[in-house]
UniProtKB/TrEMBL annotation:
Residues 7-256 form the ABC transporter domain. GO terms for molecular function: ATP binding. SMART domains: AAA (SM00382). It comes from the Bacteria. Gene3D superfamilies: P-loop containing nucleotide triphosphate hydrolases. Keywords: ATP-binding, Cell membrane, Membrane, Nucleotide-binding, Transport. It comes from Micromonospora reichwaldensis. It is a peripheral membrane protein. This is ABC transporter ATP-binding protein. Its main location: membrane.
Length: 329
């Protein structure tokens, strides 16, 4: 069946002075209307780059899309002329970033910035745009919206600035919102508030969401499915409950074991040994093998392909079933 968004076998590389970094190596994921997919991984795993490819903000060298398709409502975005691509960006698929301060213009009032696309792209009058901006600021729960239209970004707290950016992203009623580490720069209490807001907005607006994060702790309550990325690949893909109950990839298992649990006192948290690979020299076979507690010779020699597990999940591990059974114990 047709998905709302369908990324198929995407390959992206960065061509640098020192060589070619293979940052995305065959990523496939999909999104259906109204659902939330969390894309999880360490920095450098390729989760943001995939999102930038979807948004069409990657096209300039040294980033090169080698192959793949990004189907939105059945049309391949990678084949659309730039003019039509622009129509999709913001209007169909919008994105918010970690750093609201650098995404906003310091010399314009926030109301003006939120209303910019409405005036320029929708051709709204100033008065109509203003009314809609107040509506949007109320929607993202900025207190006293009507009186804060003229305030500059620096007059808002970090959390409130993130709400301003969310309001901007929602201005054109996108069907997909991509949130790239939307709470990473914020303190824990504010993080939870922003995640709650995003979850409510997604439900209320019937919008699909891709939530990119390195923090497995923030996605459990929000996401329907999780795709775990490592070295530019999706190593595990599952619905949230199955993945938490019994991860089927050693990397996911390691991530879960490094989250503090409220119900276990005096626990010793484990961490995954070693570092993510240099993408110019990705290890042979399974790219996770230098760090994997389950490693065997076959892992060094043979690239593991997605193993489809009974309940519709996949894991790119030669020993996926064993790892899952081991996790479930
Ligand atoms: Fe570990 Fe081998 Fe599975 Fe890779 S394929 S995750 S090295 S057990
Ligand atoms: Mg990133």
């Amino acid at each position: 069946g047709g998905h709302l968004l369908d990324v198929r076998d995407l390959h992206v590389e960065f061509r640098t002075g020192e060589g070619v970094a293979r940052v995305i190596n065959g990523v496939s994921y999909h999104l259906d209307p109204g659902e939330t997919l969390a894309v999880l991984g360490e920095s450098g795993s390729g989760k943001s780059v995939t999102a930038q490819a979807i948004m069409g903000i990657l096209d300039t060298p040294p980033a090169v899309i080698r192959s793949g398709e990004i189907l939105y409502q059945g049309r391949d975005l990678l084949k659309l002329p730039e003019e039509q691509r622009r129509q999709v960006r913001g209007k169909e698929i919008a994105m918010i970033f970690q750093d609201a301060l650098s995404a906003l213009n310091p010399v314009f009032g926030v109301g003006w910035q939120i209303g910019e696309t409405l005036r320029q792209r929708e051709g709204m009058s100033k008065a109509d745009a203003r009314a809609r901006v107040v509506e949007l600021m109320d929607l993202v729960r900025i207190p006293g919206a009507a009186s804060r239209l003229g305030d500059y970004p620096h007059q808002f707290s970090g959390g409130m600035r993130q709400r301003v950016m969310i309001a901007m992203a929602l201005a054109m009623n996108p069907k997909v919102l991509i949130a790239d580490e939307p709470t990473t720069a914020l303190d824990v209490t504010v993080q939870a508030q922003i995640m709650d807001l995003l979850a409510d907005l997604r439900r209320g607006l019937d919008m699909a969401m891709i939530l990119i994060t390195h923090d497995l702790g923030v996605v459990a309550d929000v996401a329907d499915r999780i795709a775990v990325m490592y070295a530019g690949r999706i190593v595990e893909h599952a619905d949230v409950r199955s993945l938490y109950r019994a991860p089927a990839h050693p990397y996911t298992k390691g991530l879960l074991e490094s989250i503090p649990r409220m119900d276990v006192r005096g626990q010793e948290l484990s961490t995954i040994r070693g570092l993510p690979p240099n993408l110019m020299r990705i290890p042979s076979g399974c790219p996770f093998h230098p760090r994997c507690p389950y490693v065997q010779q076959v892992c060094v020699d043979v690239v593991p392909h997605d193993l489809v597990l009974g309940d519709g999940r996949t894991s790119a591990c030669h020993f996926a079933q064993e790892v899952r059974d081991d996790s479930a114990r």
